[in-house]
Amino acid sequence: MSAELRASRQDATLILTISNPGARNALHPDMYAAAIETLTTAERDDSVRAVVLTGADGFFCSGGNLKRLQENRSKDRSVQADSIDNLHGWIQAIRDCPKPVIAAVDGMGAGAGFSLALACDLIVAGASAKFTMAYVKVGLTPDGGGSWFLSQALPRQLAFEIIAEGKAVGADRLHQLGVVNRLVADGTALDAALAWADELAQLSPNSVERIKSLTLEAAGNSLAQHFESEKRHFVESLHHRDAHEGITAFFEKRKPNYK
To answer: What are the DSSP calls for 79-127, one per residue?
Structure first.
């Protein structure tokens, strides 16, 4: 079987599954375009309320294929540069997608697989799952935004330790550090992520999308800039149909039904 990114639906959740049998779900360039196209389509589909990214056969993703990288050493440098640009397009599509994206990690997220998980809005991981940026072990440096995400999420010293040593870090430690949101029993990360996605699907889609936007904007905004952004989102939300339903449901003492 070839490497592929499989897309399926469960109710209001789009499930993207990284699959590369026999290679611990190593990434392949064909996956990048498929991911971008699928996420772009989901962005326009109001029936999709959340996205879950997972790996097939109980293993999240081992990152780049070293055999392919070795082959690329004999090719023009533009070959590898173009491949990384396409990977970064996938990472950016996760960030740009207005729907919440949840990583469901069992086994391991390594290299760009770790970066993909970090790009997601939420991470659910099996208790014994591990994450690693082992680029340094083979004389390489991170891609997929991994060094940026870790430096945003952790003190610089901790980010440097994880990347420069290249050692596997347990999901439990990353949970303590606030990088992993929820620890669950091994083998249940996907089920737990789908249950969480279903909970999010019951909330105001407009509010959830705007909250994602606000949290992504925050790192690059001054407080004054963020005040303006919050004001704009609040006013627009107040005059959105979701606010009418939410406020009406509150006064009628019932659960809101967002369309």
So the answer is: HHHHHHHHHHHHHHHHHH-SS-EEEEE-SEEETHHHHHHHHSSEEEEET
**pLDDT class for 2, splitting at 50, 70, 90?**
confident
- Mean local confidence (pLDDT), 57-70: 95
CB 60 within 8 A of CB 105: yes
The token pair that represents 246 in the structure block: 């939410």
CB 130 within 8 A of CB 196: no
Q: Provide the pLDDT confidence category of residue 64 given band limits of 50, 70 and 90.
A: very high
Work out the widest C-alpha separation in the chain, in whole angstroms. 68
Share of the chain residues as helix, strand and coil, in percent rounded to the nearest 5: 55, 15, 30
pTM for the full model?
0.96
Three-state DSSP at 188 gives coil
Measured on CA atoms in the order 185, 191, 194, 199, is the torsion positive or negative?
negative
